[in-house]
Amino acid sequence: MSGKRLELRTFDVERVAFGERTALDGRTLTIDRDEIGVLAASDPAFAGVDVQLVRPGEAARIPQITDVVEPRVKSGGPGGVFPGLLSPVEPVGSGRTDRLRGVAVVTSGEVPWLGAKGLFVAHDSVLDTAGPGADLHPYAGLHLLVLRFRFAEGVDHEGYERAILLAGEKVARALALTAREAPPTSVETRELGRVDASLPRVVYAYQVQSQGVFLRSRLYGRILDELMPVLVHPNELADGALTSGGLGGHGAKLHTWMHQNNAVVEGLIAGHGSRWEFAGVVVHRGHYYLYEDKQRVGLRIAESAALLGAQGAVFTLGGAGNNVTEVMLAIQECERRGIKTVLITWEHAGPDGSDYPLPFAVPEAVAIVSTGNLDEPLSLPAMDRVVGDSAIRARPEIGGVPFPIDRAIVLERRTFYAGAANPAGFGRTGSVES
Amino acid sequence: MSGLRVVHYLNQFFGRIGAEEAGDHPFTVREGPVGPGAGLQKELGDAGEVVATLICGDNRAATDLEAFGAEVEAALRAQRADVLVAGPAFNAGRYGLACGEACARAQAMGIPAVTALNVENPGVELYRRKTYILPTTPTALGMNETLARLARFAVKIGRREPLLSSAVEGYYGRGVRRTQILARPAADRALDMLAARIAGTPFVTELPLPAVDRVAPAAPVPDITRARIALVTTGGIVPKGNPDGLKQSNSTEWRAYPIDGVESLEPGRYESIHSGYDASAANANPNYVVPLDAVRELEHAHAFGALYPRYIVTTGVGTAVVEARRMGREIAADLRSQGVDAVILTAT
Amino acid sequence: MISALGPVASDLGANRVVRGVKIPHPCGDPTLDPAGDHALRVGLVKASLDALASKLDAARIFEAAR
Fold first, then answer.
1. What are the extents of the domains in chain B?
2. Residue B329 CB: number of other CB atoms within 10 A?
3. Residues B48-92: tens digit of each pLDDT
């Protein structure tokens, strides 16, 4: 496999402060708060925005996260970051990309429910930057630029969703643009070049969520509701070809940051040429409502992997529930073709950890890495600061009940904590049987 | 620290009474250690004293575990036991059951207990959730090292020391899993596992999948034209406004709503509050999830006897199997008491 | 049990399973005209009654005549 060659320039940021202008000086990033606010809230879906900074080491609770985005911009070669959304539909993943490491843009806010009760509701969550919650997501060591939005009336869910997604991307790109003239901390060349013929070929079957509004990933800006599995080069992910679907909320959601920095992709790239040949990423969606469609997805993933000559495949999940069926069927089809599989998944072992852990499984799923039990309650101490309102909304199915978060809290399930399911394997969570 | 009062259970063979022919030997209590109990005492050292040995014939115990268990309880009380050690029973099936039952009774009384069985012993599956079971070799060739492990473990649990995971402490997992922060990220663990699988080198899955519970199919309804049928759903269809606040996921409750004289579920009067599927079709026509209009048509055509005048609902998404099982039992009992013969359950 | 995920239900222990249409509408098809949709639903309930009246030794998935 050859082709895309990406020069990824990393600019480490160690200090972030509000200042006169948005600029990067050495490892200090200053942000013009008003300018960023205007840029962030320019969409008429917003009534306004509050721009806040959370520094690593602070004990802050950020409620109602909608997305997290790493500042990146293309500084050479075709296309722009977040193609199809922020940038035109042009191929990405080659040329040169600048990224600020140590900073992330966090979009948040109380997204109006508009009377919705079931699936298509922006479920509220919390994210702590200190305490036991800090281990459950990849952002605790980062400077977080939190954009807390207020929402205008007369907009529908689709409008809110699109505005939020683009706002995060706009600000992320604007921050990365400050790196233009600066010297990078490190430069890495990413390409899947030729390897020794003795190395096994492996693929990554990357499931994303696409069920409807607030639960919709986008590839090159297009929603994936009708997607059949598709081959993507890992460098395309680095340039934001895949953007968040699960706006914040639920612990199993993948933020844009996780698509940009997917831990499985990073590990596969690191081992390319030494441990294996990384043959590509098969992006697919789960939650198809027809059983035959789940079978179709399972087959297409296996056939794609087989066509690529893969001997191994890693699977992760996008969202929770019956989407595990597509993955299990794909695992079955891969194993039948002699392709060895490994699945990373969380468990639904009930509050006391004794329940049957997965909604569905096949006997061929013999190699599973567990990221812990999402059904366990989670006790979180009070934080020094809440970057938002002092209560979030629980129970959309009865119209919403305030759940105060400006104190020590116990979440009924880890599901309500952003990042808790460790869906792309960043975290060190696991499950231990006693 | 004073020594623990250890009680030891053995079968008739290890209890030096007799072999197979003594399988019906009644429950007996002897003072001090017997047979392998001497080895156990040696391994315990000063930490514990084998104050008594309970002995029973394998057949006697296995044919009436209830009575056997009661005798164990009485003996443990009389001996003021701090901890019970049973066996080891290796691969002996009936002995394994007796050991498991004895330990389960002790645990239920608040007395820590441990036994040791080979992985093939049926006692493992039956009792591992109720007590601590250490693995053993298939035969008694492993007696000495097993006694050493039993002694160490007995002291630990007798002293009520906190235990680490089953893998670390060396007992069969009890099926209770807890989230922990491990040494390495999940992605790294997955890639190592993948490399091992491709190379054919050993690996250990982090999530062994337990067997699914199967139930034998119920006998068919003898005369469907006279059957009383009820509608049950896990699709979260409730009267509009969700008057009882049924949860949208992770359900622990079920509700019954009247449909007496109702020919069809009208949109606008019912809604779906289930958080796992797109509710637009169900809200536009709730019969898509609870097929009342079709059921009524067939009722009027005498395809079956009569429709129970309430439908039952809960929400399926994220609901724990243990809760679902309980709710299923409750619903079945409720419907049975109302003379219902069969259920049509719709899932989403 | 009527379920769109027939094989899943059957694998997980449901003995009498009738294949539903799709997860959000197991007992109907909004793409059909009302008469066709209603006939489909009646067919599913009929298949359910057949399943209830059938003697089974093992789990079985019943298809409604469509």
1. 4-169, 224-346
2. 10
3. 999 999 999 999 999 899 999 999 999 999 999 999 999 999 999
- In sequence order, what are the residues at sequence separation of 6 or more whose Cβ sits closer than 8 angstroms to the Cβ of residue A61? A126, A127, A128, A129, A380, A383, A385, A386, A387, A405, A406
Q: In sequence order, what are the residues at sequence separation of 6 or more whose Cβ sits closer than 8 angstroms to the Cβ of residue A138?
A: A257, A258, A261, A263, A419, A426, A427
Phi, psi values for residue C43, rounded to 5°? -60, -40
What are the two backbone dihedrals, phi and then psi, of residue A109, each rounded to the nearest 5 degrees? 150, 165
Select from B198, B207, B274 the Cβ nearest to the Cβ of A340. B198
pTM as predicted:
0.84
| ipTM of model over 0.85 | yes
Q: Determine which of B161, B180, B207, B315 to mutate to test the interface with A (most A C-beta atoms within 10 Å).
A: B207
Tally C-beta pairs within 8 A across A and B: 220
B-chain residue closest to A289, CA distance: B277
Tell me the shortest Cα–Cα distance from A224 to chain B, in angstroms. 16
> Where do the structural domains in chain A lie, given as residue ranges?
5-416
| Domain housing C51 | 2-62
Nearest chain B CA: its distance from C28 CA (Å): 5
φ, ψ (nearest 5 deg) of residue B179: -75, 135
Q: Is the pLDDT of residue B198 over 90?
A: yes
Using CB atoms, which chains have 3+ pairs under 8 A with C? Answer: A, B
Is A258 in contact with B185 (CB distance < 8 Å)?
no
Beta bridge partners of A429: B181
pLDDT at B143 over 60: yes
- Quote the CATH superfamily of domain B4-169: Glycogen Phosphorylase B; (3.40.50.2000)
Tell me how many domains chain C contains.
1
Amino acid at the residue A35:
E
